Amino acid sequence: MTEAILLVGGKGTRLRPLTVHTPKPMVPAAGVPFLTHQLARARAAGVEHIVLATSYLAEVFEPYFGDGSALGLHLEYVTEREPLGTGGAIRNVAERLHSAPGDPVLIFNGDILTGLDIKALVDTHRTSGADVSLHLTRVEDPRAFGLVPTDGTGQVTAFLEKPQTPEEIVTDQINAGAYVFNRSVIDTIPADRPVSVERETFPGLLADGAHLQGMVDSTYWLDLGTPQAFVRGSADLVLGRAPSPAVPGRRGDRLVLETAEVAPDAKLTGGTVVGPRTVIGAGAELDGSAVLEGAVVEPGAVIRDSLIGAGARIGARTVLDGAVIGDGARIGADNELRDGIRIWCDAEIPAGSVRFSSDQ
């Protein structure tokens, strides 16, 4: 298998303010745009040609990745004029594929961090004779996901969207967001209109008697749809809990990129990432956090499980715990922000004005 479709068109609404100026797949995780990790893992699995289905802030992708040759890939870009959903986006890029009708095409979402064995998914697809194969993973609480029960051979028997009652929870297997389609199946998706693979394509194929195969792979899996999950995923990449050949440095408690300035007595732990041109002041403590390019953390600040946007400034002795600070924001000295609070891009909070704020 040599080609894939990567769905990167979402607006990343749940990740705001991180995605105000940057599409979700381009937000840095472990020092590089998250998309870099996905592309590198696909290349390591033998994929050579990838078509990126873009929409929101589509102009950002190609200037950064170009033709993909630096990653050993051939990249192409197709932009939706109007949002088409997952199925519509897949159909919209079909003309760029080179595969024959019976060839497998890998399809994956631009917001999932996973240790999926890509080659194993493709092998399962081929050996089972499936029309479509799905990566499935198991979760403790499946109510926020679509359930995908299978029979004893792994063949999918139903698609159940977000169950809410105990009776509806018939399996802990969920759709993990990576698929292998036969090329001919992609051509059956309606063109030029929104289509959801989860709600329309997959149930329709099943009703028509198509063979949909599930492969349960319970290695690392994380949906990076929220700021808290994104920060955790970045830290897990640095710590080595999540696999990627694209982490730009040694795995460990911290990742400090070139041109960053970190005071000798600053303490960086828990997979903290310090981006280029950042400044970390004397006595600052950062745990499980990400500080993006050009941000400044002043002396004595304490930052846990938080993300500091590009060009932001965190004042001396300020405490952040589970906070998200947008690009260019200014947080004065001696503030305390906790529990999922989000500060918008370019906002300013004067010194000592906030001691605590709950989730909002």
Outline:
This is GDP-mannose pyrophosphorylase. The chain has 360 residues and is α/β, with parallel strands linked by helices.
Structural account:
This protein has helices at 34-44, 61-65, 85-92, 118-128, 183-186, 197-207, 227-239; strands spanning 3-7, 28-29, 32-33, 49-54, 74-79, 104-109, 112-114, 132-138, 146-147, 160-161, 173-182, 212-216, 221-223, 254-256, 261-262, 267-269, 272-274, 279-280, 285-287, 290-291, 296-297, 302-304, 307-308, 313-314, 319-321, 324-325, 330-331, 336-338, 342-343, 348-349. With 360 residues, it is an alpha/beta fold. Strand 4, helix 2 (61-65) and strand 5 (74-79) form a beta-alpha-beta unit. The termini are far apart.
Q: Report low-confidence residues grouped into runs of 5 or more.
A: none
**Total DSSP E strands:** 30
Share in β-strands? 25-35%
Placed side by side, the strands forming the largest sheet appear as 5-4-1-6-11-8-12
Mean pLDDT: 91
Helix residue percentage: 10-25%
Give the overall shape, derived from the CA principal axes: elongated
Based on the structure, what is the oligomeric state of the protein chains?
A: single chain
What's the gyration radius in Å?
21 Å
Number of helices: 7
What class, by secondary structure content? alpha/beta
Largest sheet report:
7 strands, mixed
> What gap, in angstroms, lies between the N and C termini?
45 Å
Family: Belongs to the transferase hexapeptide repeat family.
InterPro entries: GMPPB_C, Mannose-1P_guanyltransferase, NTP_transferase_dom, Nucleotide-diphossugar_trans
Domain Nucleotidyl transferase: 4-236
Organism: Streptomyces nigrescens
